[in-house]
Amino acid sequence: MKIIITCVLLLFFSSQSFAQTKIISWNIENFGKSKSQASLDFIAGTINDYDIAAIQEVVAGFGGSQTVAKLVALLNQKGTKWDYSISDPTSGNSYKKERYAFLWKTNKAKLKGKAWLEKKYHSEIDREPYFATFEINKKTFTVVNFHAITKSKQPETEIKYFKFLPQEYPDLNLIFSGDFNCPQSHTVFYPLKKMGYISMLQNQKTTLKQKCQGENCLASEFDNIFYYPGKLKYINSGAILFYKNFDSLKEARKISDHIPIWLQFSLN
């Protein structure tokens, strides 16, 4: 009898664990052929602990897509099968074109249909967001991968259109992730918050300074994930202070000038 109860409990906790999903979002600066093998190994080691990765700032020209493929090959060597989707170059003309990428463990998530760049606001948003709908245990959610224009160019002029996206996609459970170049406390996020969306991080800086001031190495509160708690259960979240693995901030910045952030949740 004890053996049966133990087996039932193990199956229960195993299914509960499987139902949980961990997303990592990371602006990996200039992600392309300039990344060394050592950098790619480090990035793969970081992403491997998660189920889905949303990457911003993939180089639009030669080398960007190829480097994503190299990263996935490294992940596949770690014992779990990964798949990926890369966007076309973003359409904005007034600022740097880039690509986005999604990576996911195939035993944890399934891509439903094709990922797509949001076209409705491509004239208003230089690097229009990249959507992907994933299915886990027959439940779905859609990650909106986004990289706003820089702070000096007023990213709030782009983010203000996000309030229309839940209306555009009423049947989708939207999770907004990426580099907003804007803190979650900015008034431009008020409409989303009024709808019930919650920012995963508050008062968490996510960009690296040029030089640390004592133990203070972070500069700005730019990266975040916004989710609707009525459709998912928050379990845990955080930011990865990867620069602490390097002897200097200069070395760490060869990986990126942003730290990755992550969200663990289950679907309601």
Overall 3D shape: globular
* Largest sheet data: 6 strands, mixed
The secondary structure category is alpha+beta
Strand elements, count: 14
Poorly predicted tracts of residues = 6-16
User: Strand sequence of the main sheet, in spatial order?
Assistant: 3-4-2-1-14-13
Tally of helical runs: 7
Helix percentage? 10-25%
- Rg over alpha carbons: 19 Å
**Helices and strands, in N-to-C order?**
HEHEHEEEEEHHEHEEEEEHE
What's the overall average pLDDT, rounded? 93
Summary keywords:
six-stranded mixed sheet, single chain, 22% helix, alpha+beta, 7 helices, 35% strand, 268 residues
Structure description:
The protein is of the alpha+beta class and 268 residues long. The chain has seven helices and 14 strands. Helix 2 crosses helix 3 (64-76). The protein starts with a helix and ends with a strand.
List the helices and strands and how they pair.
Layout (H helix, E strand, L loop, with lengths): L1 H18 E12 L5 H11 L4 E8 L4 H13 L5 E5 L11 E8 L4 E8 L12 E7 L2 E9 L8 H4 L5 H4 L5 E6 L10 H5 L3 E2 L8 E6 L2 E3 L4 E5 L4 E8 L9 H4 L8 E7 L1
Parallel strand pairs: 1-2, 7-8
Antiparallel strand pairs: 1-14, 2-4, 3-4, 5-6, 6-7, 8-12, 9-12, 10-11, 13-14
Short account of what is shown:
This protein is α+β, with helices and mostly antiparallel strands. Helix content is 22%, strand content 35%.
